[in-house]
């Protein structure tokens, strides 16, 4: 069967992984209300195409934190990619040519090994057990050429994935980035607003907070000198019952008012999803699980193909909606179908 979209990769990935591993990758927290809401939100935003625009030449080149990328579609941090393919994050990095890959602290390969084979820019998603490890990892990431730090703020503990639990799935003991050195007594100093100043003082790398869902926290991120925000609900894997990110994006865009860069993830599967997120104000999106599907099915080639599918669909969506550059995408290209969320940022017709 020819694979024509990322959902085809999803079906094939499911058959190629054992049930427990699949449940770990696919699952959301608890009742998976948020997991479902992420997709539903995209389905409930409609497009308002403008016609007779010259779309013979579409360009989607942009900059993310000043880094040139060939598309506004980034690779989300996902830990333990070795469970999907023996080459793990090295395969993903070698396939992420046109864009930024964000490497999880819980990568199956070391951050240095990944940097060696990367074909595009890298950011490092930092989760450290204590201040000593924070300093070490920040230093190592900078030395290996990572261009920004991503601090995941929605996971002071891990959401429960019940399907994986039922299948008695357990993650393997983690080693790669920590080697055989003792990590100390578990994760004793998770970041708080009050420790961000210390983190800021450690490095001149830009810092991005991932997992913001309210205007209040977006404003705090600005107060703390953060360079970017990823509006994310962790793909529905953390607090079940939070809204889809597409629904909260407008309130955050409005509150931040251009003072830092804003990206979003959770549920991006189609080129039209990218268009909807950008129309509502995101500067770029991150793709999560589809990367794993590509990796599980066909390693680096699978990841490259998945990224290419989303890119090609987005290019098609730009042409059909009447936008030849990213700067022409704005809220007038979307309308709200059903949900009674925040109205600002939507075209009211
Ligand atoms: C299996 C899996 C592992 C993940 N591991 C991490 C991680 O280590 N760090 C992190 O910040 N986010 C992690 N995430 C969240 C992703 O970065 C991203 O927010 C999410 O997958 C986006 O939603 P999507 O899968 O619907 O595209 C993980 C997600 C999945 C599915």
UniProtKB/TrEMBL annotation:
InterPro entries: Aldolase_TIM, Alpha-hydoxy_acid_DH_FMN, FMN-dep_DH, FMN_HAD, FMN_hydac_DH_AS. GO terms for cellular component: cytoplasm. The active site is at residue 234. This is Alpha-hydroxy-acid oxidizing enzyme. Keywords: Flavoprotein, FMN, Oxidoreductase. Residues 1-339 form the FMN hydroxy acid dehydrogenase domain. The lineage of its organism: Bacteria, Bacillati, Chloroflexota, Ktedonobacteria, Ktedonobacterales. Its cofactor is FMN. It comes from the Bacteria. The keyword Flavoprotein applies. Belongs to the FMN-dependent alpha-hydroxy acid dehydrogenase family. FMN binds at residues 77-79, 104, 125, 152, 210, 232, 265-269, 288-289. GO terms for molecular function: FMN binding; oxidoreductase activity. Glyoxylate binds at residues 24, 234, 237.
